[in-house]
Model the fold of this input.
Amino acid sequence: MQTLTVIGPGRLGSTLARLARQSGEFEVVDVMARRVEPLRLACDFIGAGRPVSEMRQLAPVDLYLLAVPDAAVAFCARALAAAGVVPAGSVVFHASGVGEASLLQPLAERGAHVASLHPAFSFADPARAVAGFAGTLCALEGDEAACLRLEPFVLALGGRPFRLAAGGKAAYHAALSVASNYLVALTAMAQGLTRQAGVPAELAAPLLGGLMRQTLDNALELGPRAALTGPILRGDVGTVERHLSVLADVELASAYRALGRQTVALAGERLPDEARRQLMALLY
Done:
């Protein structure tokens, strides 16, 4: 059985630690946090682990998970390296979505294998996360030895590991942000326009939701080019002009134009040259 320590047992760290313990393949040795009450609650939730408040107290283990906020990863790595408690050959990994394994360089210089592991999953509620984690895709990047040892760790949690290209972490995280956060922003933009149109408030969600779900399903199953419909694909310059005429908010109009230019590019050769020229003139 391999051993695991978690530094920063927030929602993500507590979830992964509990899944590791439940797998029967990992022993959670230490759980580290600065504040006593959150630390106690985390250990209770995980069902294992010695509560620790200082890095010098950490026991040597096989795997160290730094589940701290993105901005704290580098500082935590320096502090952990300075504490001198991580044996050479251990794996240290963080769970930042955008940060790379290079944030852990001070530990690599002391002989640890380093990586980042990012589950494409929302950890809003740890209990629900534990129940729903199975099948989650988990991005790995870092040194080869670390990634090879983390692949079975992810599988034990019920996840599906895959590798990112070197230097690909920022693009990976941007993709997730566009697909998740920006989808929410687009929903808010569309709902604002339904209010402007006089659509009853109780109908806005079903009106937009049905179309959004159908469109998203088509885009994922058929691919974006095949799923594209609407006035830009048809070269309907007049409709786009009318849309822009009712967008009084400057930021909303700017977002519409930027997305419209991306849609023109997606339409590609299916769009007649003259229609493309007219649309691009409107959208700049």
Summary: The longest strand covers residues 26-32.
